[in-house]
Each structure stands twice: as C-alpha cells, then as structure tokens.
Amino acid sequence: MTREIKLILLGAPGAGKGTQAEIISKDYGIPAISTGAIIREAVKNGTEMGLAAKEYIDSGALVPDSVVIGIIKERLAMPDCKGGFILDGFPRTVPQAAALDEMGVEITDVISIEVADERILERMGGRRVCKACGATYHVVFNPSPNGDKCACGEELTIRSDDKPEVVKSRLDTYHEQTEPLKDFYNAKGILKIVEGQEKLEDTTALTKAALEA
Ligand code: AMP
Q1: 62 C-alpha vs ligand 1 centroid, how far in Å?
Q2: Is the pLDDT of residue 178 over 80?
C-alpha cells in the first residue's frame, strides 16, 4: 500500500473494530488510536478526566464531545500520526466528525464493520482485555496464545461495560448517535461497508480488500 491511509473504523461496540484496528496497524505500519482505550487508561490512572468519564462509561453512555475532541486533537498532533492512522471509536457523533473536518484532518477511508445486534450480545460475554497492555481477545473467536493470561503474561479481565445490560444501552447509543455518521461519510463518497464475519481473519481480508479496492 503506497497511498496514505487516514482511516475511520465505524461499527457497533463488539463488532470487531479494535481487533481489526490492531491488525491493520501492524500490517500497514500506522498507529491505531482508540479513544475508549485512552479514556480507560485515564480512569485506571485516576486522572481528573478519567474520574469525570467513569460515570458515562459505566452506564454505556458517551463521554461528552468536548472531552473526546480534546483527546483526539492532542493525539493526532503527535508525530507518529504524520504518515496516517486508524481511528477506532472516534468519531461517534456528528459533532465529533464535524470537529475532525474543522481541524483540517482529511480522512481517506471510512469502513463500517456491520454485525447484527443479536450476534454482538452473544459475542460480548466472551470478550477479554489485558489491563496491562490493552490487548483484546475473545475466548472463542480470538483466544490468547497464553490461555487465560495475555500474550504479555498479565491476567485477562472482563471490561465493566461488557455486562449485558450495559451492552444493550451501548448498542442503543450506537444506533441513535453513531450510525448517522454512515450518511455523513457516504455523502463525502468515502464510506465502505464490510460485513463482519464469524472468523476474524475473514473480516480482516474483507477490510483490506475494501482499503485496496
Ligand atoms: P470503546 O472502547 O470504543 O467501546 O469505548 C468505551 C467507552 O468509552 C464508550 O462506551 C464511551 O463511553 C467512551 N468513548 C470512547 N470513544 C468515545 C467517543 N468518540 N465519544 C464519546 N465517548 C466515547
């Protein structure tokens, strides 16, 4: 791939954005930026922003636009983003997308990974994360090479917002606030749809095909 990639991955929570972002990041040598991971890190470290964000995350609601826009502005200004990047979980509202435009960020590709809500609810129970390095796994679809420990050796945990009642509320939030972004980017002619597959490598193949088409 020789062209510059400034990619947004859209999709419901649990659709596989984070996993695909990690793979594409390695294969294309560009950073994957997850606002969710940045916020979880702030919660873990007990920073002022983390403390303010925790209540929203725990209820499945979105953190206010002003907070996440500030996070992304700072992150995109870092030198490793010069040659391209993948945004996983940002933007999640139309004002956030408009903020990217206002910052002069020229997104080249938007890929929406689509998975039915019922399948997502099934899947989320198996999701595991490493609090030390941030890697994500699924007990069935993407198991750790290290059993119930992370590849880095730390314990794997279940995210507090992966509880079924919180997942339902996150799906509602997705449909109401984030899905309208498909129209926003379709109007710019840069939206591609990928059907999330049972096997993650099949979704990767479709995602790369969408990028290279
Ligand atoms: P994620 O790991 O992307 O599923 O994000 C976890 C949680 O962090 C979300 O449910 C939101 O509460 C918050 N969050 C992450 N990204 C954003 C965003 N772009 N806008 C608002 N809230 C966000």
Answers
A1: 6
A2: yes
Decide if 92 is catalytic: yes
Nearest to 142 by CA among 204, 211, 212, 207: 204
Q: Candidates 63, 86, 181: which one to mutate for ligand 1, based on the most atoms within 8 Å of Cβ?
A: 63
Provide the pLDDT for residue 1.
66
pTM confidence score: 0.89
- Nearest atom in ligand 1 to the alpha carbon of residue 39 is 8
**Average pLDDT value for residue range 96-110:** 98
**Three-class SS string for the chain?**
CCCCEEEEEECCCCCCHHHHHHHHHHHHCCCEEEHHHHHHHHHHHCCHHHHHHHHHHHHCCCCCHHHHHHHHHHHHCCHHHCCEEEEECCCCCHHHHHHHHHCCCCCCEEEEEECCHHHHHHHHCCEEEECCCCCEEECCCECCCECCECCCCCEEECCHHHCHHHHHHHHHHHHHHHCHHHHHHHCCCCEEEEECCCCHHHHHHHHHHHHHC
| Residue 186 CB partners (closer than 8 Å, separation 6+) | none
Distance CA 135, CA 150 (A): 7
| Whether 163 contacts 13, CB under 8 Å | no
pLDDT, tens only, 125-160 = 899 999 899 899 999 889 999 999 999 999 999 988
Cα(36) to centroid(ligand 1), Å: 4
